[in-house]
Amino acid sequence: MPAAAPTPKAVLHQRFGTNARYTVEEVREAVGGCPGLAPQTRSVYRCALELPGLSVATPGTFVRKKDAEQAAAQIALDKLGIQPIANIPSTPEEAWDELIARISGFFIDEKFLSSTHPLVGHLSVTLRRTGDLIGGIPLSAIAACDVKVNTLCKVIDPKAEFDPLLVLSFMYNAAKQSPGVLVSDTNFWIQSQKPYSPEAVDMALKRWSGTSDPVEVEAILVPHVLEDELKIVRVNLRDNEHYMSYVAEKLTASDSSHVLVSRTIGKTSSEIRLYFAAPNVHFVSDISKNVLACHGDGDINCQVNKRASYISGQTIYGDALLANIGYTRRDSELRTEDVNLCTYYRILLGKLPDGNCKMSRDAILAAELPSVYSRFSWKGLSPRDLLCSFCRNQRLSEPLFAVSRVSCGMITSAASSEERGAPAKSIENQHNDDVRTEEETPDSFKCEVKICSRKQEILVEYSAADTWSKESDAIQNSSLKVLIWFNNYFKQLNTKMDKLYLSECTDGFKIHPNIFLQEFAMCLSVYGNTRCNDSGMCSAVGPFSMDTPEKHLESTTTLTNIEGPDSGVFPSHGSLTCISYTASLVMKDKAKKYLLESHNEFEFEIGTGAVGNQLESCVTQLTVNQAACFVAELPPRDLILAAASEFSHDLSNVSRESCLLEFSVKVLQVTEPLEDRMEKALFSPPLSKQRVEFAVQHINELHATTLVDFGCGSGSLLDSLLEHPTTLEKLVGVDISRKGLTRAAKSLHQKLSKKSLVQATVPTAVLYHGSITDFDSRLYGFDIGTCLEVIEHMEEDQASLFGNVVLSSFRPTVLIVSTPNYEYNPILQRSAVPNKDDEADENAGPCKFRNHDHKFEWTRAQFQCWATDLAVKHNYSVEFCGVGGSGEEPGYASQIAVFRRMAHNLEAICLNKDQNQPYELLWEWPNASIPV
């Protein structure tokens, strides 16, 4: 598969490096608004680029900074006439000839010693030697420093990409045919046939300085036996000797020419590589016979190191040394950096589907791969970038994205949400009489994803009926679906191999098991051969994908050391919450405490699964400026060591049974959900307040004394009703969320306590924990029932079930139901401030839902059809109105149905009702204390 073309910035960086200076300017520009709403602006960018002898600037503006920079770089390339052209031979024979010439060129052209090529660093050190090996370097040093040599070897035989030993074979045999060089017949040394001139040597020694003082570098020895633990070793570099000589000592190789070097591991700027001793092999110089033969099947050096091979993507033999030592184009000195257990486990973590999500957020212990995508609150690398990174780390081809346009005739008014994983409903799930016309509904997009091996064999295909209003959202959401599938698959690797099940087709996925398992054979081998035991830590690799419990939204973490008063501002579902936290490993005997991870400002959205369940449970129990501690489930040893850079040595042998993980958390800021922010910004008074005033009006008109709020949540309606003069004597709230009810109880208790001090009589209040689709006889026949902005959070069949239960069983005199009007969404979204990283698109397709948790949003026709059917069925009348806007086209922002019970024998019906009471009484005023 041909490599992707370099970006304009990358091409300029290769030519000019840090001399290419970009200056990005942020400006504000107006965006289209709506009559009656304040005009809005957005941030856009222009870029100026300074190069030696050339200055350019973008003529226009761009929504994203990176697009402005790339545009400026492209203008510069056009003016300079630079065209990046790959100059790679097309046949093995041509590549062989060029490989011979390239190896020869490193040694016969003295001008090479004045270049910035990293190989000059190796040569300059060896030019200080005396005797036969002056200027002699290991052949593997060339492979480590020169990308072109490796590319040529891959053209000769594609297997060379995954086998350093095969690369050494080609280089050794090519060097034997290269003019001007000498190659040993018994080792893998290569040097110039003629001595270099003194001037060339002086120039190289001045440019590439050696190691003036002894340097100790920490490295990791990765044994080829999976059951053996990793070992921390220290490589001492001294006396200006070639560093690979000291590496050879640690590997017990005969000399440094027998040390093979893998490709770089991790980031491209890193020099982290795996070093291993070359097996005893014989080479053949005929490129048509490139098979390498080991001398003896039992030779330990011929045994594949599965752990080292897995993290490098190449075949590594025997014990390997993971070290960060080498020469680069950026430095004129030997570059060294310690590699500890943290480094090793972070490399492993990066190969997991959720690993780069954790590391891009620098929150290995706190962050999780979110279950939904939002352009407005997603943090870290995007789902597409995460999927591409995962495929690269697994040595797969780049993911293939096929975006197709879905005709307006194929979708309905409840089309996809671009905001959060709320895809368009299929046509079968919509009201058949409410399909939009071609003029009313723009097209939308769907995305198919294919994951292929390097040989372009398909491993996984994803294709679902979900549609999205923008191409980018279709790609991002489909990428997230594939990532989640891979994440779930990796969790299966904790099970025994004979129980590992790979379904061929499920939830829009088509799996090709044979090819898939073949491609992941090394992964299965590594993860399948190391197990956790209950008495101690995991062994060296260990199953990263721990068997995490399902995310129960109602689970409550036990908090300790709670500090700060209740400010009343708490995180709720959909809110963007900023916290500070520390995660520490604490010995149970309190003897030691190790700080593993900390964040001064960590932002995530409640309800998206972006953090661990226990951490989210803690946060939702606190208000802004409150802090608390809790003990979390102990993660696998691998994650602990990946987070603990400073203490990885100390923790490597700590038993799980002797320690626990403690989080200290403080809530810094809570930003309301996008829906609430939009309603407050665009309506005065806010829609939530308008809905309360609507309810108060009907309460007083009816002279209602009893009210039940179905889906009361945190009690915002009940709390607000206490601020208005009404005829109510009893308020009841019902909700499925215990956490929300606890908040409601605290707020109501505080407000009713104050009212009781100044009023002789105050309403009684009761909160029940239960589902609003279950009937409880205690709430039968109330004067008024409310269900405001609730049903859209349920599946449509559950919303219909609620309607049937409340009108047939609860039978309030009046029932008020409100829900968003989907037809009003374009007005809201055109008026909202666009995201900086997203382009405004007036014809982007169906509008997003107002909240990622909405399962549907109905048009006026759909809502009226739903409500009318219920009213006729249960002997109620119904009238429609709303709040927000004037009521003219396209209707109110929040549409409301008011059901009124028709004349009937209420007492007879009441007597026939079962005394079923499934609800749990959670709080009651004035008889009960506040729940905790």
Automatic annotation (TrEMBL):
Where are the stretches annotated Disordered? 419-439
Small RNA 2'-O-methyltransferase Hen1 La-motif C-terminal domain boundaries: 216-351
Task: Write down the EC number.
Answer: 2.1.1.386
User: Which catalysed reactions does the entry list for this protein?
Assistant: small RNA 3'-end nucleotide + S-adenosyl-L-methionine = small RNA 3'-end 2'-O-methylnucleotide + S-adenosyl-L-homocysteine + H(+)
- Keyword RNA-binding attributed: yes
Out of the domains of life, which is the source?
Eukaryota
Q: Name one GO biological process term.
A: regulatory ncRNA-mediated gene silencing
HEN1 double-stranded RNA binding domain mapped to chain residues: 353-490
Keyword Transferase present in the record's keywords: the answer is yes
GO molecular function annotations of the record: metal ion binding; RNA binding; small RNA 2'-O-methyltransferase activity
Q: Which InterPro entries match?
A: Hen1, HEN1_dsRBD2, Hen1_Lam_C, Methyltransf_12, SAM-dependent_MTases_sf
- Which keywords are on file for this protein? Magnesium, Metal-binding, Methyltransferase, RNA-binding, RNA-mediated gene silencing, S-adenosyl-L-methionine, Transferase
Cofactor(s) listed: Mg(2+)
What Pfam families is this protein classified in? dsRBD2, Hen1_Lam_C, Hen1_LCD, Methyltransf_12
Start and end residues of each Methyltransferase type domain: 708-805
Q: Which family does it belong to?
A: Belongs to the methyltransferase superfamily. HEN1 family.
Protein name from the UniProt record:
Small RNA 2'-O-methyltransferase
